[in-house]
């Protein structure tokens, strides 16, 4: 039986070959934040199920989220969420065919990072003031 | 008159792939589209979610029950859970298909991804409904 010939296929250089750019960094970060949110949503599920289970279970879980480590996780989760949301809006803008120029791309990538930090700080500032 | 169009017989597919009949499953557009639709629905739902979570921070059991069982909040959370679990399932599927090349591991990872999304979704929805309806049905 004749062996199937392996046709010469185009190879693409891997990540470490490229010089880091804003758009590349934010693209990678979008995936990383998406993956983190994917795992992090389990914390919300645990909190909800604890609430549905009764006061004793709820107090234990709420106690954890009220600890310094819990607040750190919630703060980090907020930032990751805001970053992924703004990154997603950036992708939606591209889907409509806008923001493709080099300057626009870089500015949008920078805005994703700066905007996500600003939103996170604003949310927690309001949360501490109001609640 | 010369025909300057690209040769349509030239394909990116390898002869081996053609022989095996492998290729797109034909569900790519639906996947892409639902990913985008849930991305859009996520925006208002996540903004609401963050405000709700901020209100819940440091609350007692009774306060938390009162907040979650409010119809408006329960409905927003149910919509958010449905939108988010679908969006994350589609997103993780892309990541798996990009990075897991071994066929066996890929299939396992894709199944686990579906299970995880469904478990998270059902757990959240059940808890929200129990907390909300528990007050009515007692």
UniProtKB/TrEMBL annotation, chain A:
Its main location: membrane. It comes from the Bacteria. CDD domains: SQR_TypeC_SdhC. The chain crosses the membrane at residues 36-56, 68-87, 108-130. The keyword Membrane applies. One of its GO terms (molecular function) is metal ion binding. SUPFAM superfamilies: Fumarate reductase respiratory complex transmembrane subunits (SSF81343). GO terms for biological process: tricarboxylic acid cycle. Heme binds at residue 84. Part of an enzyme complex containing four subunits: a flavoprotein, an iron-sulfur protein, plus two membrane-anchoring proteins, SdhC and SdhD. The complex can form homotrimers. Membrane-anchoring subunit of succinate dehydrogenase (SDH). NCBIfam families: succ_dehyd_cytB. This is Succinate dehydrogenase cytochrome b556 subunit. It comes from Microvirga vignae.
Automatic annotation (TrEMBL), chain B:
One of its GO terms (molecular function) is metal ion binding. Its main location: membrane. Keywords: Electron transport, Heme, Iron, Membrane, Metal-binding, Transmembrane, Transmembrane helix, Transport, Tricarboxylic acid cycle. Its cofactor is heme. It is found in: Membrane. One of its GO terms (cellular component) is membrane. It comes from the Bacteria. This is Succinate dehydrogenase hydrophobic membrane anchor subunit. It comes from Microvirga vignae.
């Amino acid at each position: 039986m004749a062996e199937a010939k392996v046709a010469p296929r185009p190879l693409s250089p891997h990540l470490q070959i490229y010089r880091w750019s804003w758009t590349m960094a934010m693209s990678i970060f979008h995936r990383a934040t998406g993956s983190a949110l994917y795992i992090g949503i389990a914390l919300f599920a645990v909190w909800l199920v604890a609430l549905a289970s009764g006061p004793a279970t709820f107090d234990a879980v709420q106690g954890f989220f009220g600890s310094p480590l819990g607040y750190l996780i919630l703060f980090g989760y907020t930032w990751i969420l805001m970053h992924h949301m703004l990154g997603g809006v950036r992708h939606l803008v591209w889907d409509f065919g806008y923001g493709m120029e080099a300057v626009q791309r870089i500015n949008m990538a920078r805005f994703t990072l700066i905007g996500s930090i600003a939103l996170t700080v604003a949310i927690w500032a309001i949360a501490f003031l109001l609640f | 008159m010369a025909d300057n169009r690209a040769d349509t017989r030239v394909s990116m597919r390898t002869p081996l792939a053609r022989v095996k009949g492998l290729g797109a499953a034909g569900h790519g557009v639906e996947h892409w589209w639902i990913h985008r639709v849930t991305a859009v629905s996520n925006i208002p739902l996540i903004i609401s979610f963050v405000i709700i979570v901020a209100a819940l921070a440091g609350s007692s059991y009774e306060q938390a029950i009162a907040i979650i069982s409010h119809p408006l909040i329960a409905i927003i959370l149910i919509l958010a859970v449905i939108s988010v679990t679908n969006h994350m399932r589609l997103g993780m599927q892309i990541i798996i298909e990009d990075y897991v090349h071994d066929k066996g591991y890929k299939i396992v990872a894709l199944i686990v991804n579906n299970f995880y999304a469904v478990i998270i979704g059902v757990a959240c929805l059940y808890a929200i409904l129990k907390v909300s309806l528990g007050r009515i049905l007692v």
